Amino acid sequence: MIDVEVDLFDELARAILAEYPESFVSSEYVEAPPQFPAISIIETNNVTNEGTEDSSGEEVMAALTYTVNVYSNSQSNAKQECKAILNVIDKRMRLCNMTRIMSSTVDNARDPTVYRMIARYTGFVDRNLVMYRR
Q: What domain range includes position 117?
């Protein structure tokens, strides 16, 4: 399996924390984050790209999907804070040749005082760890 999760997460977390140093950033879902804003960046899919298989017996390229959740409990600008953080992530994902395939708000019925946005990104990575757009 071609694995870039740790490197990509590290790059995104550094970019977020540079602009939002009080953020909580995780590579896993956390039901009750210790602080806000909170961001989860999760590799939700990593599958062999069958169209690139050859006779080497090794994986040549993998198709990746990342799901990003951004949470804010700001009293005055939660929506704007989520969008601004997502913009930081979006710029960095584009630099990594990832394509945003979805971005949406999510009703947070569990706690309506917390605003939530979700985005999904896809792309490809080859065995040399070079990333390509979809």
A: 5-128
